[in-house]
Amino acid sequence: MAVSQLSLLLFHSLLAIATITSAVAAATPYLSPTTLFPNYQKMLTTFKIYTYTPPSQFTSTVTTQPESLFTTSLLASPFVTQDPEEAHLFFLPFHPDLPTRSLARQVRELRQKLPYWNRTLGADHVFLSLSGIDYSSDRNSLELKKNSVQISRFPTTSGHFIPHKDITLPPLNPSPLAVPHAPPANKTATYLGYMRADGLPEESSIVNELINDPDFVIGSQPSDGLGEMGNSKFCLFVYGGEVTWIGEAMAAGCVPAVVADRPIQDLPLMDVLRWTEIAVFVGTRGGARGLKEVLRGVGEERYERMKGLGAEASRHLAWNAAPQPHDAFHMVMYQLWLRRHTIRYTRREWV
Ligand SMILES: *[C@@H]1O[C@H](CO)[C@@H](O)[C@H](O)[C@H]1NC(C)=O
Ligand SMILES: *[C@@H]1O[C@H](CO)[C@@H](O)[C@H](O)[C@H]1NC(C)=O
Asked: Which CATH class is domain 191-315?
């Protein structure tokens, strides 16, 4: 059996388990609905991050990219402390697209100058890297890669992401759609699926098949997609293509159908959201026919639940120029808060 078939099979069994579990528990988009909000409140009052002196690049206020919005929000937030002794984590304000070699040099300088890196070999340190960093033999970049929490864009390059340690940022739509607050309750969808023409990976044959399929509508203008989106049951996100509007699709009641041939481990808010209850995951091996079978196979009851949970979860994927409670910035902070426990070696000079 091919690996992708196997992973699809695995995925379907996971979905089955998730479906059974959720039939027992109350419907919730969260992985830990009882602890999430109390923990979040605790984070608001307790969490402290020490930031090394930001380089001059960060005086810019580009707010169309999630990583710059994250950094400016963090630096202006009450989470920042100048007292390293009360800090849970240490933020390395590296420019997010520095090559690995420059990162290694900066880590080397920091570890010589200050004691904090050596205490945990970087495990309580956090850094941004757009596409994630690769393994290298240099000690400094190796510790950064293996120990520190990496925050990058979704999706990451294969091999540049370590599950359970690293985080991806919820995507930020550069041309946001004005999605109404509540999705239409009783939507009679005309189309099975909606796709956006821009940013679809060209090499994807499934995309080329679907372009001529009457069950699918292709939006050409990102700005006028709202009507077509609301008229479709599922919104298609081909892994590796444009995903910046996934939160808006969810808010509009269009259930995400994520097309990928490998298990996805780098979804944003992976520690917070129960993605299998919000989105349908499907491989490309069955072609357009297989994809449509999977989508048609989603029962009405499950579909309505996914739509509701997606709309409920969408607010956590939304970025704001001035951060709002439970928005993308705060949920990324929450994921960092979950990663705050590290063992610090006491500094001791062995003789
Ligand atoms: C941290 O450790 C490295 C190598 O083990 C050492 O060269 C460096 O001086 C140490 N840094 C501090 C601030 O003591
Ligand atoms: C939606 O449709 C169902 C069944 O067709 C109906 O019972 C319900 O009242 C409708 N809800 C709204 C908000 O119109």
From this structure: alpha beta
